[in-house]
Specification:
There is one protein chain. By secondary structure, the protein is mostly beta strands. It is 10% helix and 29% strand. The protein has 1 helix and 4 strands, in the order ββαββ. It has one helix spanning 52-60, and strands spanning 19-26, 36-37, 68-74, 82-90. The protein has a 4-stranded antiparallel β-sheet with strand order 2-3-1-4, covered by helices on one side. The longest helix is centred in the middle third of the chain and has 9 residues, at 52-60. The two termini are 28 Å apart.
Length: 91
């Protein structure tokens, strides 16, 4: 196997991905809040992008309960509103 030009020995990432945080929030997050609603056209990711573990997490934490929404932010940003739970996903 020829690995010429590939430097994986220094911990270089073999795959490019972006980490997002899914937040289950109760109530309104306001216009100036970090993040976008997962089900809006402005969301950086789509529900269909999520792996089975993320989908199970959403279900276990009641994302479909009345008054709740799923907000997507870049990792490290926190939306306004009453946070119920959060979960990091790498896509």
């Amino acid at each position: 196997m020829d690995l010429t030009g590939n430097d994986y020995s220094a911990g270089a990432a073999m795959t490019d991905y972006t980490t997002y945080t899914l937040w289950i929030v109760e109530g309104d997050i306001g216009q100036d809040s970090a993040g976008k609603d997962l089900f809006s056209p402005d969301s950086p990711i789509d529900y269909s992008d999520l792996n089975p573990a993320a989908l199970l997490w959403l279900t276990e934490h009641g994302y479909e309960d009345p008054g709740r929404r799923v907000v997507v932010t870049p990792a490290g940003e926190v939306p306004k509103g009453a946070v119920v739970a959060s979960y990091d996903v790498a896509l």
